[in-house]
Amino acid sequence: MQTFVIANQKGGVGKTTTAINLGSALTHLGKKVLLIDLDPQSNLTSGIGYEKVNKVDWSQSTESPYPSIYDVLTENKKLSSVFVPTAIKNLYLVPAHLSLAGAEIELVSQLARESILRNALREFNEPFDYVFIDCPPSLGLLTINAFVAADMIIVPIQCEYFALEGLGQLIETVRIVKNLNPTLEIKGVILTMFDSRTKLSASVACEIQEFFKGLVFETIIPRNVKLSEAPSHGKPIDIYDTLSSGARAYKDLAKEFAKRFS
Ligand SMILES: Nc1ncnc2c1ncn2[C@@H]1O[C@H](COP(=O)(O)OP(=O)(O)OP(=O)(O)O)[C@@H](O)[C@H]1O
Ligand SMILES: [Mg+2]
User: Fold this and answer.
1) 147/245 Cα distance (integer angstroms)
2) If you measure from the C-alpha of residue 43 to the centroid of ligand 2, how many angstroms do you get, rounded to a whole number?
3) Residue 127, pLDDT score
């Protein structure tokens, strides 16, 4: 089992989109994948269609109406009691809920508060090939828990102006977390929302390739409206629109990913 945190402290760069669609594409290569939603926004949980399956009315509750990662972090529940199957075979989810926002504060007084997720993953005996942890765009105890629990970091970067903004902060976070997780490193960079009609995307892509040298995946994720529509239908792109450029890109990325992390 290899555990990846999908991180970038810049918001809206494609972290959640990558977790859902790379995760789903990997299952078609015969991999068993667990997605952990560690973001109080719960975009991963809703984007994979969890509320549809469970008929949850999201607007009605401040407390989570279903078992979630919050219970693992604050109530000592086991991951085995909160993970659920999704509509995609071999793709599983540990859901989040808005109530997770409160966990940041509740965790402050807990012992070994940075290592709760790592300990939970260590005693989790399900045979997954890959675990992806989707992070919020901020640096708090939730993100630190993800960094301590993960073996490697995958960084999606949007091919837009200010793309490199926040990466200095990310690199600094990795440096600090190394005290708790000495082998943690950035092992992959994914270029997202590439717009082939603009020169800007190409020049930003070059800049990122230069900055991260061999870490950048050859597959580039294009800007594709189908990718932004899919989560509102609660489906990964390979189910929502198999022939879209977004679906093809995440399929290619999955092949490259499985080769790099075999
Ligand atoms: N390749 C793409 N083409 C078009 N739209 C995209 C693409 N990737 C992501 N999006 C859209 O851009 C928005 C931000 O993407 P996403 O939620 O994956 O980013 P994020 O990094 O997880 O954001 P946050 O930091 O808020 O968690 C979403 O509306 C998503 O549907
Ligand atoms: Mg997100």
Assistant:
1) 31
2) 6
3) 92
Q: Are 204 and 10 in contact (CB under 8 A)?
A: no
Residue with tokens 């399929």: 251
The domain containing residue 221 runs over which residues?
Answer: 2-260
Exposure b/e, 203-220, CB count within 10 A at least 16 = b: ebbeebeeebeebbbebb
3-state secondary structure of 184: coil
Write out pLDDT tens, residues 53-93.
Answer: 555 555 556 677 889 999 999 999 999 999 999 999 999 99
Residue of 36, 68, 48 lying closest to 150 (CA atoms): 36
pTM of the model: 0.95
Number of domains in the chain: 1
Question: How far, in Å, from the CA of 142 to the mean position of ligand 2?
Answer: 13
C-alpha to C-alpha distance for 119 and 258, rounded to whole angstroms:
26
At 77, phi and psi to the nearest 5? Answer: -75, 155
Domain with residue 162: its CATH number is 3.40.50.300
Backbone CA torsion sign across 253, 257, 258, 259? positive
What phi, psi does 158 have (nearest 5°)?
-80, 135
H-assigned helices in 12-139: 15-27, 43-47, 50-54, 69-74, 103-107, 116-122
Using a 6 Å CB cutoff, which residues line ligand 1?
A: 11-17, 39, 41, 43, 137, 192-193, 221, 223-224, 227-228, 231, 246
Per-residue b or e along 18-49, where b marks 16 or more CB atoms closer than 10 Å to that residue's CB:
bbbbbbbbbbeeebbbbbbbbbbbbbbbbbbb
